[in-house]
UniProtKB/TrEMBL annotation:
This is Serine hydrolase domain-containing protein. InterPro entries: AB_hydrolase_fold, FSH-like_dom. Residues 7-202 form the Serine hydrolase domain. It holds the Pfam family FSH1. PANTHER family: DIHYDROFOLATE REDUCTASE (PTHR22778:SF51), OVARIAN CANCER GENE-2 PROTEIN-RELATED (PTHR22778). It comes from Clitoria ternatea (Butterfly pea).
Length: 216
């Protein structure tokens, strides 16, 4: 055995925000210090469905844009949700073995729900267990059928959450924390975005990486 696995880079499937892309998320994450990124093996994929409306990042990032699934105004009904879960599993098989998930916005909502759905046997049944997740600008699903399977009992795997002071999803991100066992939280002054890391948050991220390296 030896100590070969001690510094293994966690391989992370990265799920981008609504109507953006894997390339856009990669650009956003690349604001993080090299010292952090060098310790992670990040895999960026595009969501399965082409953008079905205007993207909020138009003018900031070039198309094409994609979405993971569609939803009603109340965020209680989802279209193409099962197809989305199957697609993520296919990505995990193709790029695997995947240790954990990182998600932003719609990708974060998915990332936080997947370990519970996997535990219940309704998603990711053909891939190894998700060992951790990193959430930026996340929230919980609201459909009772998904809630029941995703967050009950509480999510057991380690999780790291970024909460933006002016993020419109902040309150929902706090609600998500209540469903996680021992979440690690980084507060930042920005809105619904992937923040740069200051010295303190960089230390927190590195400590989280060291912790998960022991589990993979």
């Amino acid at each position: 055995m030896g100590s070969e696995g001690v510094n293994k880079k966690p391989r992370i499937l990265c799920l981008h925000g609504f109507r953006t892309s894997g390339e856009i998320l990669k650009t956003q994450i690349n604001k993080w210090p090299k010292s952090v990124l060098d310790n992670l093996d990040l895999v960026f994929v595009d969501a399965p469905f082409p953008c079905q409306g205007k993207s909020d990042v138009e003018g900031f990032f070039d198309p094409p844009y994609y979405e993971w699934f569609q939803f009603n105004k109340e965020f209680t009904e989802y279209t193409n949700f099962d197809e989305c879960l199957q697609y993520i599993e296919d990505c995990m098989i193709k790029h695997g073995p995947i240790d954990g998930l990182l998600g932003f916005s719609q990708g974060a909502i998915l990332s936080a729900a997947l370990p519970g759905l996997q535990e219940k046997g309704v998603a990711l049944t053909k891939v190894p267990k998700v060992k951790f997740f990193i959430i930026v600008g996340g929230a919980k699903f609201r459909s009772p059928s998904v809630v029941e399977k995703a967050y009950s009992p509480s999510i057991q795997c380690p999780s790291l959450h970024f909460l933006g002071e002016t993020d419109f999803l902040k309150q929902y991100g706090i609600e998500l924390l209540e469903s996680c066992v021992d979440p690690v939280i980084i507060h930042h002054p920005k809105g619904h975005t992937i923040p740069r890391l200051d010295d303190k948050s960089q230390e927190t991220v590195m400590a989280f990486i060291e912790r998960i390296q022991k589990d993979i």
